[in-house]
Specification:
By secondary structure, the protein is α/β, with parallel strands linked by helices. The chain folds into two domains: 83-252 and 262-374, von Willebrand factor, type A domain (Rossmann fold); 418-465, Herpes Virus-1 (2-Layer Sandwich). It has helices at residues 20-26, 83-90, 101-110, 150-162, 198-209, 222-234, 263-275, 293-301, 315-319, 325-337, 340-349, 373-376, 417-422, 444-447, and strands at residues 118-123, 170-171, 173-176, 187-188, 196-197, 240-246, 280-286, 310-314, 434-436, 441-442, 463-465. The strands form three sheets. The protein has a six-stranded mixed sheet with strand order 4-3-1-6-7-8, sandwiched between helices. It has a three-stranded antiparallel sheet with strand order 10-9-11. It has a two-stranded antiparallel sheet with strand order 2-5. Helix 4 (150-162) packs antiparallel against helix 5 and helix 6 runs parallel beside helix 7. The longest helix is centred in the middle third of the chain and has 13 residues, at 150-162. It starts with 19 loop residues before the first helix and ends with a strand. The relative contact order is 0.15. Residues 1-13, 63-78 have a biased composition (Low complexity). One of its GO terms (molecular function) is ubiquitin-protein transferase activity. One of its GO terms (cellular component) is nucleus.
Length: 467
């Protein structure tokens, strides 16, 4: 995939220029930080207190023979600390240090960042159809209308912010979680795997694709993270930022004990840890109603990484604040990018930039994206204008008709009624074996914790196990 973008993805970037030395001097680690506690000497002296020496009492006489003790002490063994491991510990948890977007932008420039090399991954799992109930007026989070949906809004803000650091404006864009990829693959926005030319083209292509997608699942971020590490390796080790926008956390069974990971969670954790061996920062933006408790734990507690390469941002929480729209957008960009300066600096000091180390060269999964489902349905990928979204005939909506204005992007995709009638509409993998009082059905695993029916949104008062 890297070969299809501009020349900067094929040759390592010179790093540390234009301000890197100033950053190093101003952030010297030979001095104690200003918040470090200081301990005064003992009263009456200018030096640390030492107790006066007194000889120990002689041992009591004994008639048993003991071996003479040595008159010299063994030298203290010298422990050699691998400088790389010391740096890994130092960057294992990067703090959120900045208060304004200007500070983040200035720090990125001071650290020598020349290009953001943005990669975008979009979540097309089935839960997008109902996780906008509170935050997006009961509409699908992929709803296309006169107002930007949360996915379009997040891409616009990050795209505008990072455009100053993008020298060629090429953005590889991928989708995951739909019926063609599930939790195993990703699809490229274009069949020839070419990147989008700027975030405006990414938004245009998104509008072209959405009406033709069948939302599915389950949710795993491992495929998109592995796709990003493949791009980084193919670029020769240039620094990249992976922006994942998703409506929910990684799929997890309700029966799974606390402290245990689902297969999707384990693969996602493994992919994040492996990605820390590459010059890649991962920003996960949460849109919709959540929940997000597990993603916050991911952000703080993923173990054994070369550096803290993962940042979670709750888009919905920021956009719900009672401040001006421009202020909310600034706060979101700040929250998403505030760790990037230290992460970029970590990739420099850990020598991850440029020519990749022998230990990781060739070790990326070498993922190849699927073609977009758009092509599967016979529509040209190179349409000169977006398709008209008001002319299609809707199939039965997933919510009752009193939800005025609700359009499901998946409603225009070719349907398989037999498949839909027998598979749980939430996980899209288990058979339907639980019915609610309203008549709609899911699998028992998904239905046990639901408070509202995912189809008609009525309160669940009765659950019936089907055999």
């Amino acid at each position: 995939m890297g070969s299809s973008s501009s020349s900067r993805r094929n040759s390592p970037r010179a790093v540390g220029q234009g301000g890197a030395s100033h950053w190093s001097q101003s952030q010297s680690f030979s001095q104690a930080p200003p918040w470090a506690p200081s301990y005064p000497p003992e009263a009456g002296t200018g030096y640390p207190y030492q107790a006066p020496y007194s000889a120990p009492p002689p041992p009591p006489p004994t008639s048993t023979y003991s071996q003479p003790t040595s008159t010299y002490s063994q030298p203290t063994p010298q422990v050699t600390v691998d400088p790389r491991r010391r740096l890994q510990r130092r960057y294992s948890r990067i703090a959120d240090d900045y208060k304004s977007l200007d500070q983040v932008t200035e720090a990125l420039a001071r650290a020598g960042l020349e290009s953001s090399n943005l990669i975008v991954g979009i979540d097309f799992t089935k839960s997008n159809e109902w996780t906008g109930k509170l935050s997006f007026n009961r509409r699908s989070l992929h709803h296309l209308g006169d107002v930007q949906n949360p996915y379009q809004h997040a891409i616009s803000i990050i795209g505008r912010t990072l455009s100053a650091f993008d020298e060629d404006n090429m953005i590889p864009c991928f989708g995951f979680g739909d019926a063609s990829t599930h939790d195993q693959e990703v699809f490229s926005f274009y069949p020839d795997e070419r990147p989008c030319n700027g975030f405006e083209e990414a938004l245009t292509r998104y509008r072209e694709l959405v009406p033709h997608l069948r939302l599915a699942g389950p949710t795993s971020f491992a495929p998109i993270i592995e796709m990003a590490t493949t791009i980084v390796e193919q670029s020769g080790g240039q620094y990249h930022v992976l922006l994942i926008i998703a409506d929910g956390q990684v799929t997890r069974s309700v029966d799974l004990e606390h402290g245990h990971l689902s297969p999707q969670e384990q693969k996602t954790v493994d992919a994040i840890v492996k990605a820390s061996e590459y010059p890649l920062s991962i920003i996960l933006v949460g849109v919709g109603d959540g929940p997000w408790d597990m993603m916050k734990e991911f952000d703080d507690n993923i173990p054994a990484r070369s550096f803290d390469n993962f940042q979670f941002v709750n888009f919905t929480e920021i956009m719900a604040k009672n401040v001006s729209q421009s202020r909310k957008e600034t706060e979101f960009a700040l929250a998403a990018l505030m760790e990037i300066p230290e992460q970029y600096r970590a990739t420099q000091e850990l020598k991850l930039l440029g020519k990749l180390m022998e230990s990781v060269r060739g070790s990326s999964p070498q993922r190849v994206p699927l073609p977009p489902p758009f092509e599967t349905y016979g529509t040209s990928a190179y349409s000169s204008k977006p398709p008209q979204f008001t002319s299609f005939k809707k199939s039965a909506p997933p919510y009752p008709s009193n939800d005025v204005g609700y359009d499901s992007p998946s409603s225009v995709a070719p349907s398989s009624s037999t498949w839909d009638n027998h598979v749980c509409p939430i996980c899209l993998s288990s058979p339907k074996d639980m019915a609610f009082g309203c008549g709609h059905q899911t699998c028992c695993e998904c239905g046990q914790t639901l408070q509202l029916c995912p189809i008609c949104r009525s309160e669940i008062q009765t659950r019936i196990k089907l055999y």
